[in-house]
Design goal:
Elements lengths: L6 H22 L5 E7 L7 E5 L8 E5 L3 E5 L6 E6 L8 E5 L8 E6 L14 E6 L9 E5 L5 E8 L5 E7 L15 E5 L9 E6 L7 E6 L4 E7 L2 E8 L2 E3 L5 E2 L7 E6 L2 E8 L5 E5 L6 E5 L5 E7 L8 E6 L9 E7 L7 E8 L4 E7 L8 E6 L5 E6 L1
Length: 390
């Protein structure tokens, strides 16, 4: 005797089967999952991001260098507070935030007067300010003007010997440069005095590279190691005997770099880069610096990059964002995952497909759940998003 299912029962069983199939397919998908949350839909450009505890509540906040304002968003309610505005006639461009005095709250430096076409006149191109924290960090901060070179573009607080810190400032061009030709970029270290109102000493680290678009820091246990990307490739600096030095073998010279980040494969480092500046290619250089693997050439104005092990796999994944529509008329963010423990082949997966014209991005665990989140700012999409790791 045959068994007859009622339509409702049949539909329930079909739904159950499809659920099992979906679960099986998802189990085969190695990509981490994210849930997007827009916390600001009205930013102007979103030039640069930083992550750190601004108000001392032991939660990482989001800091943003927007067109005319430097702002921070409070972790939890994501309320927006203006730290400084209209510091210079031209746009803001970058900021650095890190706790350098051990009080649990970040110190903040900023770069503005963004005028990349003017490489000679320091009065109308480039600025560096240190922001003095008020008792209530939700109020305006006081800006102290520091020395600068024209076309200041990126900055980081770097840890040196004895748990001391320096502010490293990277211009885009050397003085008087045209089209990346001429004098080398002056990379300066700023030594913060106990009283930030007193003069800041500066040290010239390097002047050998051109079109230095970005740089990254790697904690090597005692100090930070610095990777600078530019027209000539990537140059690596270590802090030894009170000086920043670079070994000859620490120079990747086969391709020009825009963005550069350092990742981990087990106990080895790799270098990921956008090539060339504002370029279409994402590449990985394995630890011997001779093995280059191109992950994609489908970017358009690649401008945001990060590495982190979202999957706890022992191999960092690479997150890449671009800000102009590519050949498929898409902007967005993708994550690339190594298919093997050696990092010889990689596969890409969407994080945000066409909803983020990405200018900058960072990775952090914002809610303390042990999962890494992506924070991104969009240039033409005018949005600031958190992609919560699930």
């Amino acid at each position: 005797m045959g068994i007859c299912f009622k339509p409702q029962t049949h539909n329930m069983m079909a739904s159950f089967v499809f659920s099992l199939i979906a679960l099986f397919i998802n189990s085969l998908d190695p990509a981490p999952k994210f849930k997007a949350q827009t916390i600001d839909a009205n930013i102007a450009i979103g030039y640069g991001l930083a992550i750190g505890d601004v108000d001392g509540d032991k939660k990482p906040d989001i800091l943003l260098a927007d067109k005319k304002e430097f702002v921070w968003y409070r972790n939890g309610d994501w309320k927006r507070f203006v730290m400084a505005e209209n510091l210079t006639a031209s746009d803001n461009v970058c900021l650095a935030a890190r706790d350098i005095d051990g009080d649990g709250m970040v110190e903040v430096a900023v770069g503005a007067q963004w005028n990349p076409g003017e490489t000679t006149d320091a009065e109308i191109s480039g600025s560096v300010h240190y922001l003095v924290r008020p008792k209530d960090p939700t109020k305006k901060w006081t800006a102290i003007k520091l020395h600068h070179e024209p076309t200041v573009h990126r900055m980081h607080w770097a840890r040196t010997s004895g748990n001391q810190y320096q502010l490293i400032v990277l211009p885009l061009h050397g003085r008087g440069n045209k089209n990346g030709e001429g004098n080398g970029v002056r990379v300066y270290a700023y030594l913060p005095p106990k009283d930030p109102n007193q003069p800041w000493k500066t040290t010239l680290i390097d002047q050998s590279m051109h079109l230095t678009h970005n740089f990254d820091l790697l904690d090597n246990g005692r100090t930070d190691r610095m990777y600078i990307g530019g027209k000539e490739g990537v140059k690596i600096f270590s802090y030894e005997n009170k000086n920043w030095t670079t070994p000859a073998k620490g120079f990747i010279s086969e391709h020009s770099f825009g963005e550069v980040r350092v990742g981990k494969i087990g106990n080895e480092n790799f270098v990921a880069g956008v090539e060339p500046m504002h370029g279409n290619q994402l590449s990985v250089y394995l630890s011997d610096h001779n093995k280059r693997i191109m992950l994609t050439d489908e970017l358009k104005q690649g401008h945001a990059l990060a590495t982190a092990d979202f999957l706890n796999s022992g191999v960092d994944q690479i997150v890449i964002g671009w800000r102009e529509p590519n050949s498929e008329q898409k902007v967005g963010i993708k994550i690339f995952i190594a298919n093997d423990k050696q990092g010889m082949t990689w596969s890409g997966y969407w994080v945000d497909e066409n909803g983020m014209a990405c200018e900058d991005l960072k990775v952090a665990d914002l809610n303390g759940d042990g999962k890494r989140d992506i924070i991104a700012s969009g240039r033409s999409t005018h949005n600031l998003k958190i992609y919560w790791g699930e």
